[in-house]
Structures are given as C-alpha cells and as structure tokens.
Amino acid sequence: MRLGIRIFLVYFLFVGLTGYFVLNTVREQIRPGVRQSAEETLVDTANLLAEILHDDVKGGTLGQGRMPDLLRAYGKRQPRADIWGLPKNQVNHRIYVTDAKGIVLLDSSGEAVGQDYSRWNDVYLTLRGEYGARSTRSNPDDPESSVMHVAAPILDEGNIIGVVTVAKPNSSLQPYIDRAEQRLLYLGLGLIGLGLLVGAALSWWLARSLRRLTRYAQAVSEGERMALPHYRGGELGQLAAAVERMRTQLDGKDYVERYVHTLTHELKSPLAAIRGASELLQGPMPDEQRERFAGNIERESARMQQLIERLLNLAQVEQMQTLEQQHQVALAALVDELLVAQSARIESNGLQVRQRVPTGIQLLCEPFLMRQAIGNLLDNALDFTGPGGLLVFELERRGERVALSLYNQGEAIPDYALGRVSERFYSLPRPGSGRKSTGLGLNFVEEVMQLHGGALEVANVEDGVRVRLWLAANRLS
C-alpha cells in the first residue's frame, strides 16, 4: 500500500472517530440543554404567578375572581409566532394552584380542581420549603409524552399558604431540539468532510514530494540528469539538500577517478611522441629532420592542449544537472557568427555554404553552451567535407519538436561507427590527413542537448551526413 494512502487512512480514522465522538457528545447535550433553559423560564413564570395570586389565595377568593376566566382565555390564544423559522400557534403551559394542604384550587385545564396533589413532587417539595419540580409522562407507555412541572410557593409573612405550578410538555420543545441536532449534524459532517479533503490534499502533497525525491535519487543512481526537487524549507527541503550533497560527493569521487584514468590513458600517446622526438633532437641530425621532429612536438603539444581544454569543457557540462541561466538568442545570428569564425577554412577549401535559418527566430538556451555545441558540429563537418563540398544550415519542424540541422557533403559514416560517433574518445580518421580528433566533440554536444531537454541525431543521407539538434518547439519564439 502506498505511503500516501496509508497516511490518508490513518488521518481518516483519526478525524472520523474524533468527529463522531465530538458530534455524539454535543448531540447528547442538546436535549438536556434545551430543557434546562425551558425549566429556568418555568421557574420565573411560577414565581411571578405566585406573587400575582397571593391576595386571592389568602382571601379564599381564587375561584370567584377573574383568574379562572383569564386562564381559560389564555388557553385559547393563538400566538402565531415565528421563532427562528419554527411556527408557534398555541400556548402549552398548564397552570394549577393548590392550598397549603395540596388540594387543587384552580386548574387551567379544568381537570384536577378538588384533587389532592400533595404527593406530587412539585407540590410536596414546595410545601416543605424545597425546590419543587417533577417530570411525568402523560401517557405511561410513551416516553415522548413527559411534562415538566415547576412549582413556586405562595408566601404570606414567611408562611406557605399555597403552591402554584406551571407545567410544559417536553413535546413542545422537540422541534427546537430536532432543528439544533440537524444543524449540528450538517455542520459536523461538513467539517469532517473538509478535514478529510485537507487530509487527502496533505497526503497527496507529501506522497508526491516523496515520489519526486525518489525519482531524483533513482535518476542519480542510474547516471541520468534530473533537476533537484525544490521544497521551501522544512524536513523535505533538508532531505533534498542532503541527497544532493551525497550525490555531489559520490559523483565527485567517481568523476575524478574516471577522468584521471581517462586523461592518463589519452596523454600517453602524445607524451611518448614528444619524448621520442626530444631524445632524437638531442643528437646530431640534418636540419630538415630537426624541423620535422620539432613540428611533431608542436603538433602533439597542441593535441594535448586541445584534449585538456575539451575535457575541461566536457567535465563542466557533465557535472551540471540543470541550466541555471537561460536567455533568448538570435539563432540565425549565432550561426552566422560561427560561419564567419570559420571563414578562412571555408574559403581555403572552396566550400559552398547555405544558411537557411530564418532571421528573427529566438532560441531559449544557455548561450555559451549552445554556441560551443553548434561550433563543435561545424568544426566536425568541416573536417569531413572535401574541397568544393556543400554545407547547409536549416531549421526543421516535426510536430512539437524543432531541429537545427547541419548537412555536410562527403562520405557516409560506416555502419559500424554510426551508433558510436557520440561516444567519448571515439573518433574516425579525417579524410585529408588520416588523423583522429580527441573524440570529445560530439559527446560534448550530446551532453549539452540533454541539459536542454533535447537530443542529438546523426544520420547518413544522400551524398553526405546530416546532424540534427532536436529541441522542444516551445523554446523558439
């Protein structure tokens, strides 16, 4: 199972369980919370009625006064109230009054007048000077039919002369409880869903970051070029930096060993030629031979210098993982500049040059490296083009790719060598002199193209060879 999925499942389990327990706990507090608020209102109402009914209870005129008519009229009222979106079209309070012995003197429902309520907790506790309240089912078989009763004493000079009770059915509070629970459920599910989305996004980001770092490590282990993933600080940034330092140290060690071995091997031949010529020059010989051996020393020294310079350039390119700076370069002007630099060789061999790269085309590249790469191609083409031959620079398009191509008229590359021409130190003898080059030019070009996300292609065509530098079309403007 992938790391991102495992992280998300753990996060999902944590958020789900936390959300469930929190929602369940809050939901369990809604019902008692609403009833507590209602009970507090009943307490105030009962105490207010106790003061209003004091004179009638004391004077024994409760049944003959206006109160029975007022309670009957109260029971018939239709408030037509809209309480936060919930309608209220009838009153729900039941009010009854007992004397000091618990006998009902007045009942707004008209059902219990004359009955003994002294054993009901609301009346019983109040007559004893305690807080009197009870909750009783109107239907013993229906748990939703419970009714809250809250009583208050009617006092006369500190003595309890009666009790007034205000009752309210819990069913009248249920719509408010249901609405609160529904809103809480929607809000809770929404928060859980949002939390899971955040968790999924976090898991995806973390897994994606680790995959990028893994791909980078795999590419490094396989010797491929790849840009170091960029992270803004944190542990991932530190891990990426540590992997890059490890790559640099390991690459540096292997690189030095490989290049020391290569340089030693390639310098053996010119050093042996120079040493042999210098030993011969120490003895007497004709001036003609002396000049020939001195020329050998000069040529071999130049060869060593060229080899060292090209190795240094190649080493610089191979150590680069990405192009740090890129600029727009006028491609036609760059080609013209290189042709002018080689004009002496072109004119001395009577070569024909056709430059077909459109003016105004801008190439996004690292200017120095691209100039070196195209210069190596031109130098290589001049070596293999006979007197009076043809060179053609042009721009080709193929789908989402473009290519700067260079055609040189001359002998085809042998089949056995066609796939190896870009190998390091592999070189074919030049037609004119039979000498080989350092074998680093096309290898350098290939490295530069890889840095630009492109490719080098060498192919035999009719009457010559065509080399293409393939690049993404979006690099041209």
UniProtKB/TrEMBL annotation:
Q: EC number(s)?
A: 2.7.13.3
Compartments in which it is found:
Membrane
Q: Which Gene3D superfamilies match?
A: 1.10.287.130, 6.10.340.10, Histidine kinase-like ATPase, C-terminal domain, PAS domain
Transmembrane segments in this chain: where?
6-26, 184-206
Q: Which GO terms describe its molecular function?
A: phosphorelay sensor kinase activity
Top-level taxon: Bacteria
Start and end residues of each Histidine kinase domain: 262-475
Q: Locate the HAMP domain: which residues?
A: 204-255
Instruction: Name residues in a coiled coil.
Output: none
Q: Which UniProt keywords apply?
A: Kinase, Membrane, Phosphoprotein, Transferase, Transmembrane, Transmembrane helix, Two-component regulatory system
Cellular component GO terms, alphabetical: membrane
Keyword match Metal-binding: no
NCBIfam families given in the database record: PRK11100.1 (NF008312)
In Swiss-Prot or TrEMBL terms, this protein is called histidine kinase
Please tell me the species this chain comes from. Answer: Pseudomonas alkylphenolica
